[in-house]
Amino acid sequence: MTVKDHSSADDRTLVRAAQRGQMAAFEELVARHRDRIYARACSMMRNETEALDLSQEAWVKGWQRLRQFQGEASFATWMTRIVINLCLDQLRRQKRLRAESIEAMDEESGGVERQMPVVTVNPTAGLERGELRQRIDRALGQLSYEHRTVLVLHEFEEMEYKEIARTMGCSIGTVMSRLFYARRKLAALLADLKQAD
């Protein structure tokens, strides 16, 4: 039996072959879309190790649920939704743990603010492209996970309000509100960049 070359097949053909159990077809799909899935996980988690773990988990889930894929959206979009949902679940768990940790710290030490590191900023540093990206990444990291997630899904994933609402389990009005406040806070966090121009 020869191994079929899947490199020239389109995604739909590969999905059908993979749904019939051809692992090589699924491996070709992974090779085509793994960078996008990993990038989406990175943009949401802001941590490469977690993003790698979650993107691998997404591929496992994709394989396990492949028979449920109906082809209403592209395979890449379907996989992106899987990784986004995994990231949202992880962010919710982290938020819960952080809240519990802060409460415990507050009770033990008499105030969270005493435990926070002092952050200093060098205002004379030049803002090369890499530095600018780091500033934007840090600013995104300062947004709440709800605001950051809405912003990432809308601006980078180009999802519509309705899709975001369904993905996050909230109303369209909540999505619009979060997006408004996320943009406003991000603009405030990056305001000094505009003044430096």
Report on the structure:
By secondary structure, this protein is mostly helical. The chain is built from 9 helices and no strands. It has helices at 11-19, 23-45, 48-64, 75-109, 129-142, 145-156, 161-168, 172-189, 191-196. It starts with 10 loop residues before the first helix and ends with a helix. The model has no long low-confidence stretch (mean pLDDT 83).
Contiguous low-pLDDT stretches (5 residues minimum) are none
Q: How many DSSP H or I helices?
A: 9
Nearest-integer average pLDDT: 83
- What is the terminal separation in angstroms? 64 Å
Strand content: under 5%
Rg (CA only) = 21 Å
> How many beta-strand segments?
0
Major sheet characteristics:
none
What proportion of the residues is helical, as a percent range? over 70%
Q: What structural class do you assign from the helix and strand content?
A: mainly alpha
Shape: globular
**Sequence of secondary-structure elements:** HHHHHHHHH
What does the secondary structure layout of this molecule look like, with pairings?
Layout: H1 11-19, H2 23-45, H3 48-64, H4 75-109, H5 129-142, H6 145-156, H7 161-168, H8 172-189, H9 191-196
Helix pairs in contact: 1-2, 2-3, 2-4, 3-4, 6-8, 7-8
Structural features:
mainly alpha; 9 helices; 0% strand
In short:
By secondary structure, this protein is mostly helical. It is built from nine helices and no strands.
